[in-house]
Amino acid sequence: MINTTSIAARTGGSEGVGLYGAAKAFVSSMTRSFAREMAPHGVRVNGVAPGVILTDFHARNSTPEQLEGARRGIPMGRLGTADECVGAYLFLADDVLSGYITGQIIEVNGGQLMP
Q1: CB of 46 within 8 A of CB of 2?
Q2: Does 102 have pLDDT greater than 90?
Q3: What is the number of alpha carbons within 13 Å of residue 81 lying toward its C-beta?
């Protein structure tokens, strides 16, 4: 099982998205809880936490100023794309590559958050 959480789960999100951050924190916590519960049944449970990714959501809900502010806080100097998240999902879905990994959240955020 691979859940999608968010950088907002750790940071609380930006202004006005506190409920979103709280919901994603729930997803991260449940990922770890399910990992413990499902491991004896041979089920691995992990998550992917994208940072600021250029999607239709941001096109509709974020101002250019907000996106530029986010970009300035990313060490790689740019916002991510959905395609750049795919590798984390494929890695976690592959039993050969990640068969002994459970209860983990992979952060995909250009260095914006380095836990």
Answers
A1: yes
A2: yes
A3: 2
Distance CA 89, CA 70 (A): 24
What are the CA-CA distances from residue 22 to residues 18, 29, 65, 104 (Å)? Answer: 6, 11, 24, 18
Which amino acids are annotated catalytic? 20
Residue 57 is encoded by which pair of tokens?
């959501």
Please state the rounded mean pLDDT for residues 76-80.
97
Nearest alpha-carbon partner for 57 in 88, 79, 27: 79
Q: From the CA atom positions of the chain, what is the Rg in Å? A: 15
Ordered structural domains, the chain, with CATH: 2-108 (3.40.50.720)
In this predicted structure, what is the pLDDT of residue 15? 80
Nearest one of 57, 53, 39, 38 to 88, comparing CA atoms: 53
- The count of residues in the chain is 115
- Give the type of residue at 115: P
What's the token pair of residue 90?
């494929």
